[in-house]
Each structure stands twice: as C-alpha cells, then as structure tokens.
Prior knowledge:
9-stranded mixed beta sheet; Rossmann fold; two-stranded antiparallel sheet
Amino acid sequence: MFKxxxxxxxxxxxAWSRITEPGxxxxxxxxxxxxxxxxxxxxxxxxxxxxxxxxxxxxxxLRTAADNWRARLATLDxxxxxxxxxxxxxxxxxxxxxxxxxxxDVLGAAAPHLLWVRGKLDLSTAATRSVALVGARAATxxxxxxxxxxxxxxxxxxxxxxxxxxYGIDSAAHRGALAAGGNTIAVLACGIDRMYPPGNTSLLRxxxxxxxxxxEMPPGAAPYxxxxxxxxxxxxxxxxxxxxxxxxxxxxxxxxxxxxxSLLKPVGAVPGPVTSMASGGCHQLxxxxxxxxxxxxxxxxxxxxNVGDDAAPPPKKAQAATDGLTPEQRQLFxxxxxxxxxxxxxxxxxxxxxxxxVFSALGILEARGLAVTNGVGWRxx
Length: 381
C-alpha cells in the first residue's frame, strides 16, 4: 500500500504529520505505545492494537479517528516532503534527535511528531532560557512599543524570545529581539516553506537568518484557524513563561496563556488603560488570578528566570528633601513659614516643641538646606 519505506523513522514521522492535525492526542497516544512505523502498519491493516492493550478514548474515539486518518493514506508522499524541506535548507528534527527541545515533552500525547527548523539556532539550548511574548494582531502603538522594549531588554538578559510571527505584538517582539542581537523563535501555523503572513516576509526571513522558524506542519500546509490555535500550545511549551502584552477579550493570544496555565507555567500580563479594549483580555487574566501583572522586563525576567538570579530589584522610590528627618524635625519643618521669618520662641508655640528641641531641629534643617535664617528668625528655604 505504501510507496515509501515505513521503517524509516523520518519518513514515518513525516507521514503522520500529513495524516493528523496538530495536537492530536489520540494519534500521540497511539504512536507512544507503538512507534510511527508500527502505527502506520496498524492503520493500513485496520486492526485494533489489542496486543498492546492500548486504550485511547475507550476504543471508540480511536476507531473514529482511524477512519478519518485513512482518508489521507492514499495521498502520502513523505519523501517528497523531505526533499521539499531540504531544498529550503530546513532541517527535520525528531523527538529522538539530540537537538530536540525537551521543553515540548510537557505536552505529552499532544506533543508534535516532528519539527521543521529554518535557521541556525539550536532549539534545545535556546529554549532553556526563554519567554513567550504574545498579543493581539491589531495592536496599538503602546502595545508594540512595550513588546519591542521588553524583547530588547530580555534579549540583553540572554532570554530567547518566542512568538508566532504574526502582525502586531508578535512582530514587535521578534524585531526587538533581533535589534538587540538576541535569539528569537517564530512558531508557524503553516508549512516551513510559506512566509505567512505575506506582509511579514522580510521579518520572517530575518528570523530564519539569525534565529529560527519552526513548524510541525509539512511543507505546503496552509494556515487554517484551527492550526493557529494548536500552534499556540508549542509557543507556551517553548517559553519558560508566557507574557500577554496586549489582547482584547477574544484575542487568540489568550489561548496561549491558557495553554501555559495547563502546563503549570507562569503567565504575565501587561496592564493598559482601563478604557482600552485592546488591553481588556490582559486585565481579565489578572482579575481572574491567572496572570501576574508585569510592568517591565525585570519583572518578566523574574517570572521566567532562575529564582534569586533573576529577581527584580525593588522599585526605586522618589526621594523627598524631608526623607530621613525625625518626627520632631519634620514637625518643626512643617511649622516653618514659607516667607516670613519667625523667632525660635515663636516656633515653640507653632510647632509645639520646647526651646532646646527647636534649636536642635533648626540646626539640622539649616545643615540640610531646608531652613534659612536672617540672624533673628527662620523660614523654609
């Protein structure tokens, strides 16, 4: 039936990437119990794998899925897919390969069968210190500025920026990382040979040159909406944390946050104006207790980095001239007039302090430049 060597693990994995849609956990469970090659034989024979005691959806779901999978068997040509990818200079990774990013293992049965990679970046290394920055395609200038700034500063902290290569927040995040000379990964919802969206072709080519384009889809695969939603699980898995920079109530970026939560990974959300619909999804994530509010790259690094090493510094407080004064010194300072001079005796009454305490406090206030005297009285400087 098959016109290729199904015992070749690469060709078998490529076949399954054609047979199933991304994130198919029924297929993933089947392949994890058998192997891609053995699962193909079982599918072609139409037999229940009872000898392996596989239970996928109590059997009914497996039978239904298998009927759907068989519809694509006649069109398989994994050798052509392999050649198409190689012509692009893309490399094929299997879970058994040394360069496979082990971060994807948390997806379990929904993990991809393979990855196509265009670019020089080593995924297994780059993803060990990473942040997924995601958000709306219809981003505001504020959102794009924050995404670019965060990516730039996180790249300087040696974080890899993971996103989806889309318009808006994704594009700003990738550009920020590239501008800083950092690593960035764009996870595609289509074949590795397609530059989608077309308006981002130059950006995606730049990522392929200096970072990595990644896809679990076979060459030529079209970017269906369901594939975008499935792609988001890879973005969440590759990032040590996911940060939603800007998202409306129904933004697809929120699905990435939900995937991260299901994987027990931290989620951050950037606040925006309460009047901005573009930030409504971010605010809801915080309100629901799903996300931690983040306002700068240091707080994102704390969320995604190593405990202690990447802790955000305490916020800098504005220094006031009266900081460090004792209660008596502040009491006298408050009693000093702004223009007219008052004698020390007058100040005892207005400040409610004894004369020795007034003279002691006046000496400190003069030394700090907070009070001036005309030789008879004092006032604020």
